[in-house]
Design a protein that fits this description.
This protein is of the alpha/beta class. Helices cover 42% and strands 19% of the residues.
């Protein structure tokens, strides 16, 4: 009985902080490599393969959900990603992603802007204007 409870607790807590990548339904890709995803979120890839501009949305960099996404999905430390954005902005060679206040706001922005990408909590429903992007 105790083992079953521990297993259920572990299963429950292992789902906390998990995120899924979402894109606007206009994006033709169904899956991407982790390296390609990193190039998108580090603002180095600015155009999708079909020619659409990429619009990146994130939660505030100090928020634990954002940090968990960067560590688990992008496999980098959040401070390194911020350094990449800062370097691009200060050199005039690029920009930083657009910051939103919540997962719901991110879903709304991704759904309403062609070429948009973001992430949301595992288990949230996406509408017809957005889809989940699988990571290989």
């Amino acid at each position: 009985m105790i083992r079953l409870l521990l297993f259920l607790l572990l299963l429950t807590f292992s789902r906390i902080g998990l995120s899924e990548v979402i894109v606007n339904s206009s994006v033709s890709l169904e899956h991407v490599s982790r390296q390609y995803l990193l190039s998108i979120f580090s603002m180095q890839t600015r155009v999708w393969p079909d020619g659409q501009s990429v619009r990146v949305y994130i939660l505030p960099p100090h928020q634990s959900e954002h940090q968990a996404f960067v560590k688990t999905e992008l496999k980098v430390f959040p401070y390194r990603l911020v350094k990449i954005w800062d370097r691009a902005v200060f050199s005039g060679a690029g920009q930083s992603p657009m910051v939103v206040g919540s997962y719901q706001e991110m879903l709304d922005k991704v759904s309403s802007h062609k070429g948009a990408i973001g992430y949301m909590s595992t288990g949230m429903e996406v509408g017809s204007d957005a889809k989940k992007l699988r990571i290989d």
